[in-house]
Amino acid sequence: MKKSTILISLLIINSILFELSAQKSVVDSMENLLLQHIKEDTATVNLLNRTANNLYSSDNEKYLIYAKEAEKLADKIEYTNGKAVSLNLIGIYYYNRGNYSIALEYFHKSMELKEDSDDKIGIAVSLNNIGAIHTESENFDEALEYFKKSLEIIEEIGDENRIPTSYNNLGEVYTKLGNFSKALEYYEESLIGRKKLGDKQRISESYQNIGFLYQLQGSYQQALAYHQKSLKIRVELNNKHGIGLSYLNLGNVYLETKNYNKALDYTQRSLKIATELKLINMQKDLYLSLSKIYEGKHIYLKAYENHIIYKELNDSVFNQENTKKITALTHQYKYKKEKQAILLKKQENQKEEERAKQQQYILFVIFILILIIIGTSLRFRLSKIRAEKKYLLKEIQILKSEAIIYMGSFNDFKLNDNLNRKKIEAEINGVLNDSDWSVLTILCEKPTIKNREISEQVSLSIDGVRSSLRKMYRNFNIKNTKENQRTALVIKAFQISKKA
Q1: Whether 244 contacts 282, CB under 8 Å
Q2: Quick one: angle between helices 80-96 and 280-296, nearest 10?
Q3: Phi, psi torsion values for 77, nearest 5 degrees
Q4: How many CA atoms lie within 13 A of 8 on its CB side?
Q5: CA 22 → CA 234, 235, 242, 261, distances in Å?
C-alpha cells in the first residue's frame, strides 16, 4: 500500500489549530500587541500562543520561539490551560520535523494538564494527536481507538466545529488500511460539515485527502482535479505549508502517470517550501519522489543522490529501522542502477539504429511519393497543354475557313490580312503602339514564330518582344497555359476583328 504523504501534518493541524491563519498582517498585528503588552499575565500567554499558531505555515522557527516563550511564562504564572496549549504547539513542531518520540512526550504532558482541569475539548485534541502518532507508526488499531475516543468527546459536548475534523482523521486511517469505500464516506461527511462552516482551510484539506484517495485507486484525473481545488484555496489563503503539500501531491500523481517533467516541477516547488519551513518529514517524502522521478527519466546519478538523502532523512525519522536492511537496499539500488544504465545504453543504441533505418525508409518513401506527384503533375499538365493546343489549332482552322468563304478563295490568304486595329483597340479599351501591333500581325501570320525572329523583324530586343506579349496577354485577358498563350492571342484578335 502506498504511503500517504499528507496524513500526519493534516491530522495535527486539523485537530489543534482550528483557526489557523498565516496571513502576514495578522501576525504583524499580534507581534505589535506583544510589544505593547509587557505584563506577565494570562493575556500575554494567550497572545504568544495565538501568534505561534498563526506562524505555523510561514515560519516554523519563530513559531517554536513563541510557543516556548508561552510555555515558560505559563509555567511561571501557573497558568495551566495556557501551558497545555503551548505544549501542544511545541509537539506539532517536533512532529513535523519527524521527532515523533519527542512530539508524543509533549502531547502526553499537554493531555495530563487538560485532564487535571477537566478540559474536555483539550482532552479530545490530545487524544487526536496521539492517534496521529500511532497512525504514522502504522499502529492503526490504536489510532482508530484514540480517534474514536476523541470524536466521542466532541459529539458529547456538541462541538460542531470539530466533528468534521474527526471524520476526516478517521477517513485517513481507513485510507491507510485500504478500506477506500469507508474512507470516502468519512471524507465526504467531513467535507459537507466544513462547507457548512465555511472553513476554507479545512475544505482545502478535504479536497486534498479525497484527491489522495482517488490517486490510490488509480483515478488520476479525479485526483488531479481535487488536488488543484485544494491548491487554489491554499494560494488564496497564502498557506505555505498547505501549498507545499498540494505541490507534493500533484507531483506524486504525475509521477505515477509517468509525466516526469511535471512531476519534477511540482516536487521541486514543494521541496523549496519544505526546506524553507524545515519540514523534515515532508522533505523525506519529496527526496524519495525525486529519486523515482530521476530514475524514470534515466538520470541514475541524481536518482541515487536523492535516494541517499531520502535514506538519511528516513533514518533520522525512523531510527528503529534495521540498518542491515537499509544497507542491502542501498547496494541493491546501486546494482540495479548500474544494470539499468548498461541496459539503457544498449536499448538506446538499438533505438538509434532503428530510428536511423526508419528515417532512411521514410526518406525513401517520401522521395518516391515526390517523384510520383511530380510525374503525375507533369502528365496532367502535358495532357492539358496538348488538349488546349489541339482545340486552339482547330479554332484557327475554323477561322481560316470562315475568312476564305467570306473573302473568296485565293492562294495567298493570311489571317493578319483580316485584323482590324480599331475594333481590337476598342474591345480591349486601350491603344496598341506600333511595336505591339507589329508583333501581333507577325504572330498572326505565324503563331509558332520565335521571339528572336520577331525581334529581328520589328527592331525590338528579345526582352522587348516578351514585354509586348505580356502586355497583350493582359489586355486581351488570355488565361491559357503559357505554352498556348500565343495561339490563344491570335484567335482572340481575329475573333474581335470579324465582329460586326
Answers
A1: yes
A2: 20
A3: -95, 5
A4: 28
A5: 11, 11, 11, 31
Cα–Cα distance, 365 to 411 (Å, whole number): 60
Phi first, then psi, for residue 208 (nearest 5°) are -65, -45
Considering the domain architecture, whether residues 172 and 282 belong to the same structural domain is answered as yes
Q: Cell 494560494 appears where?
A: 235
pTM of the model: 0.53
The DSSP annotation for 361-415 comes to: HHHHHHHHHHHHHHHHHHHHHHHHHHHHHHHHHHHHHHHHHHHHHHH---TT--G
Residue type at 226 in one-letter notation: Y
Task: Mark whether 282 and 419 lie in a shared domain.
Answer: no
In a domain, 491, yes or no: yes
Please indicate, yes or no, if residue 120 is contained in any of the structural domains.
yes
C-alpha distances (whole Å) from 318 to each of 71, 98, 173, 382, 456 are 28, 8, 20, 84, 104
Residues 285 and 248 sit within 8 Å (Cβ to Cβ) = yes
> Which bin fits 479, alpha (ψ -120 to 50), beta or left (φ > 0)?
alpha
User: Do residues 179 and 309 share a domain?
Assistant: yes
Rounded Cα gap, residues 421 and 429, in angstroms:
12
Nearest-angstrom CA–CA distance, 109 and 164: 26
Instruction: Identify the pLDDT of residue 48.
Output: 87
Percent helix / strand / coil, the chain, rounded to 5: 80, 0, 20
Residues 6+ apart with CB under 8 A from 266: 247, 248, 250, 251, 254
Query: What is the extent of the structural domain holding 458?
Result: 415-497
Picking from 275, 305, 320, the residue at the C-terminal end of a domain is 320
- The phi-psi region of residue 79 (left if phi > 0; otherwise alpha if psi is between -120 and 50; otherwise beta) is beta
Give the CATH number, domain containing residue 115.
1.25.40.10
> 477: which 3 cell numbers?
485577358
**Do 245 and 9 touch, CB atoms closer than 8 A?**
yes
Average pLDDT of adjacent 10-residue blocks, the chain of 500 residues: 34 36 53 68 88 76 88 92 93 84 89 90 91 84 91 92 92 93 94 93 94 94 96 94 95 96 96 90 93 95 94 74 34 42 73 83 85 78 68 63 45 57 84 87 84 88 90 87 83 81
- Euclidean distance between CA atoms 160 and 363, whole angstroms: 72
Residue whose C-alpha is closest to residue 122's, from 130, 113, 131: 113
Phi-psi region of 186 (alpha: psi -120 to 50; beta: other; left: phi over 0): alpha
